[in-house]
Amino acid sequence: MNKSSFALASYKFDHLLLDMDQQESKDIDIAFEPYGLFKEDENSIFNLTFIFKAFNKNVESPFIKLRCIAEFKFEGRLTFEEIPNYFYVNSIAILFPYVRAFVSTITLQANIIPPILLPTWNLESLAEPLKMNTKFDK
Q: Which residue, 36, 94, 95, 131, shows the most beta carbons closer than 10 Å to its own?
């Protein structure tokens, strides 16, 4: 079996907004915003910022907004241009279960009935926005 070229080193949720007074119905819209920062040094570290928002239909302000920041480490030294395309898809796929669990946990612990349970999704469409929203630091 081949060893992975990158791994999730750590993650944290550093921002949370939960305003259930704004939740008017069970019909909600979901939005994701991925951003990246690649540190081009001997450690080849990629910081992925993943923002999740839940809105009521036709309402601008989210009733849930959270930010998760994850650190991925690459094996060996890499340049920005050498980041493999599969990383953008797979890094989000690796992080999303933590986001799903966090959303369900906070809504369950807040005694929101029913709690918000996000389904599993194919988030492959977020790979290109992540790639476009990635900056690098030399």
A: 36
